[in-house]
Amino acid sequence: MTRKVIVDTDTGIDDALALLFLTAQPEVHLLGVTAVYGNCVIDDAVRNIGTVLGVAGHPLVPVAKGADGPLEAEAHIAHYVHGHDGLGDVRLDRHEPAVLLAESAAEYLVDMARANPGEIDLLTLGPLTNIALALRVEPDLLTLFRSITIMGGSGPFPEVGRSDMFDANIQNDPVAAAAVFAAPATRRLMVGVNATATVITDEAFVETLSEAGTPTSDFAASILAFYLDFYKLAFGRRVSPVHDGLAAALMLHPEWMTQSVTGPVNITDDGFTVRARVMQTASGAPVAWEIDPTPDTIAATVIDTDAFLPAFLDALISGAPTA
Ligand SMILES: [Ca+2]
User: Fold this and answer.
1) Active-site annotation holds for 76
2) What is the Å distance from ligand 1's center to 93 Cα?
3) 301, 5 in Cβ contact below 8 A?
């Protein structure tokens, strides 16, 4: 079965890998890509999409430019994570998309959803600003899409004494996130940092990519090296979580999510960090306050890493299937 997919991305390093993974899947028809600020500034996000689509062998996929900052407050650009250009500062030959649409990302999302009701899977890999802007135009946007898969959020509350990784996509635009998690949706899947933090690539993974020597694996290895250098300060070793690649994979393969929880998601701000959480404790009990009863979101909690990682590696090596 063909899967029609639109990706909204702030095209940093793990976003690039997610796009390479998707374009390597024979069943995926990538209809378009929308750009948002986040891992880098918006113009770099657009340029990085053009560059990655070129490497992936899909240079003619349409691209729409979106928001350059959150609905409220200032953008925080993650240069220290993804390099100044968003792709680890290793490419000198980045280029604009061959097909850059005149309409905005939000307009494109509304038009595509209305023209293809129930047919398109939407994958979001950055702050949710473009989706929130589209919801202002079309409040039923997420019921017109076949599904929305969100890289972002933190799952249910953790066990006492444990904490989750930084939830950048939610922290960057909590107002937009609140709108997206409150909207009616056909199927809404949260692939949060609670899940992505458990799936890592390491130096051996990068070495296997380098040794394969294909256009996509060489590119993936070069940008992943930068990412591993950032995360060494978090873990003391050169590894990185597969945030966006895992979200792309779970959109296509929900069976690689061996456990999940389902319930309303609210935005929490403890004064230190902002997150999107399923309003449940780690043991599934209700939280200790009155919640906003938003419609259900499925949140991934346990991943079949043994199924996902080899498929991810294979896709980054093989690249797009030749017709
Ligand atoms: Ca991203």
Assistant:
1) no
2) 21
3) no
pTM equals 0.97
Output DSSP code: residue 255: G
Give me ligand 1 centre to Cα 39, in Å: 6
Tokens linked to 144: 């017109």
Per-residue pLDDT reduced to its tens digit, 26-79: 999 999 999 999 999 999 999 999 999 999 999 999 999 999 999 998 888 888
Q: In this predicted structure, what is the pLDDT of residue 323?
A: 53
Q: What's the gap in Å between 259 CA and the centre of ligand 1? A: 23
pLDDT in tens, 241-262: 999 999 999 999 999 999 999 9
Nearest Cα to 30, choosing from 66, 64, 60, 65? 60
Domains of the chain: 3-318 (3.90.245.10)
Ion ligand 1 residues within 5 Å by Cβ: 10, 15, 125-126
